[in-house]
Write a structure and sequence with these properties.
3 domains, four-stranded antiparallel sheet, RNA-binding, four-stranded parallel sheet, 15 helices
Length: about 475
RNA sequence: GGCGGCGUAGCCAAGCGGCCUAAGGCGUUGGUUUGCAAAACCAAUAUCCGUGGGUUCGAAUCCCACCGCCGCCUCCA
């Protein structure tokens, strides 16, 4: 089944056709590294990860780029004031790059915990100033941008399609203007490509004097450098639609004369307990804070990807607990299958089971092909698991097929732990002790030993064949 | 003010005109299994999809009105 995606640009669900057969170029707006990223940021990054993994599941070769913004966007409006990185730098009395480095590491660490596949490149804004300047020069040469003193602005009236992505018209924007008009600009909506400000800590030389780049140009410059002027997919949070992505389109298409991005995907905001997350409400949790509360990292991942990306998902602690249980259910099935596969029970793969597995994968793919219908995909997964649990008479070849199916599903979901087979000797000894007690029907002793094993952080479960299975109650 | 979305069981959440006497997960209750557990399996947990109208042979799904909630509109993923 072909992939269908909702394209913000056309406001329609469209069939996805890559520019080059079998290959996909994908750009995701990454973090601005001035603070620890929170779960809301990560929902957007996880949606990009889910999409990328699914494209790969379908056999496409994905080139994925995610920028790291280490030169700040401006705090107030696009024209005045300090930028966020600079503010953090001043507050902490540190160099902006030091701040950026610190939070970049925090971001990368959390990404790793959430099992986000590393993009092919994480380009940094400060390492692409030259590319940005080159693009600004082109825009000035072509007449889309104008220079006023040491500043360069983009003239939005020169770009006919300005507003196409967000649905804003210049008239609407004029009417709703909430900020004071900068006298230098020809039109209130014109945005800065290059700014001069002697107070700014980060400054670079340019044809227009010392200054720093505007806050949209980096994505235009870096995406074209790594993916070409025209590419397939661009992802980001819903708030990026305007002005950021609108301005990106204006810059990129004006500079190259080509269509910029074919499919725009925007993840809606996460709510926490039904409310918008914000600093003032104190509900902007970071990954580390949730781990500190005892939640598991894959439960966080599961929770954040388990609802549709174009829906405001309501994130709750209860939801996180439910996610832990759901993952356990899959994990438990993997344990069962691993045992069955190792049982050396010979036999052919029964047609009925072969079909169960292949149907599961087909339906899973169909579900996600429908604009990433993850709820449906998870339902397929759990239906499959129920059937597998019922077929406990499987031979090892059959178990291997089922295991393979779950692993393929998890190549997209990315929530399973690799099963740690290393059971410590002391746990094994206790298990032996319990077994002996059980054989002698000394139930009290057997139960005490089980409690002891529990206290050591392991769970012991008896299997029907008289053996037992260990599970470590994982720390996060 | 402009634009957009949502309201489905105790909770989360699919379904978007007939296969719905409404998926799936979590939770709860009962049962099977077990020495007891755990896990698993079975069954029950919405006769109905915010409210009121309408269209239709047929609506959770389309239209209208109303109520409630939420998001975006140059800080934000």
């Amino acid at each position: 089944m072909s992939l269908k995606l909702y394209n913000t640009l056309t406001r329609k669900i469209e069939e996805f056709t890559p520019l080059q057969q079998g290959k996909v170029g994908m750009y995701s707006c990454g973090p601005t590294v001035y603070s620890h990223p929170h779960i809301g940021n990560f929902r957007s990054f996880l949606v990009a990860d889910l999409l990328k993994r699914f494209l790969e599941f379908k056999g496409l070769k994905v080139t994925h780029i995610m920028n790291i913004t280490d030169v700040g966007h401006l705090v107030d409006d696009a024209d005045e004031g300090a930028d966020k990185l600079e503010e953090a730098a001043k507050k902490q009395k540190k160099d902006p790059l030091e701040i950026a480095k610190f939070y970049t590491e925090s971001f990368l660490e959390a990404s790793k915990l959430l099992n986000i596949k590393s993009p092919d490149k994480y380009p940094k804004a400060t390492e692409h100033i030259k590319e940005m300047i080159d693009m600004i020069k082109i825009l000035v040469d072509k007449g889309y941008a104008y220079v006023v003193g040491n500043n360069v602005y983009y003239d939005v009236t020169k770009f006919a399609n300005y507003g196409q992505l967000s649905g804003n018209t210049l008239d609407d924007l004029n009417a709703g203007a909430r900020i004071e008009v900068n006298q230098e600009k020809k039109n209130p909506q014109d945005f800065a490509l290059w700014k001069h400000d002697t107070k700014h800590l980060q400054q670079w030389d340019s044809p227009w004097g010392k200054g720093f780049p505007g806050w949209h140009i980096e994505c235009s410059a870096m995406s074209s450098k790594y993916l070409g002027a025209e590419f397939d997919i661009h992802t980001g949070g819903e708030d990026n639609i305007f002005p950021h992505h609108e301005c990106e389109i204006a810059q990129s298409e004006a500079a190259s004369g080509k269509k910029f991005v074919h499919y725009w995907l925007h993840t809606h905001f996460l709510l926490f307990d039904g409310e918008k997350m914000s600093k003032s409400k104190g509900n902007l949790y970071t990954i580390q804070e949730l781990l500190d509360k005892g939640f598991k990292k894959n439960a966080i991942r599961y929770s954040l990807i388990s609802s549709h990306y174009r829906q405001n998902y309501n994130f709750t602690f209860d939801g996180l607990k439910a996610a832990e249980q759901a993952i356990d259910k899959i994990q438990q099935c993997v344990l069962l299958l691993t045992d069955l596969r190792g049982n050396k029970k010979e036999g052919k793969i029964r047609e009925q089971l072969q079909k169960l597995a292949s149907n599961c994968l087909t339906e899973f793919e169909n579900a996600l092909s429908d604009d990433l219908n993850i709820s449906k995909a998870l339902a397929v997964c759990f239906d499959f698991i129920r059937e597998v649990n019922k077929a406990s008479d499987m031979n090892s070849a059959e178990a291997a097929v089922m295991l393979d199916t779950i692993n393929k599903i998890d190549s997209v979901l990315g929530v399973l732990e690799t099963i740690d087979k290393e059971v410590p000797d002391n746990i094994k000894e206790l298990a032996e002790k319990r077994k002996t007690a059980k054989l002698g029907k000394y139930w009290k002793i057997a139960d005490d030993v089980r409690a002891e094993i529990m206290a050591l952080g392991w769970t012991i479960e008896d299997t029907p064949d008289g053996g037992c299975r260990f599970k470590r109650r994982e720390e996060t």
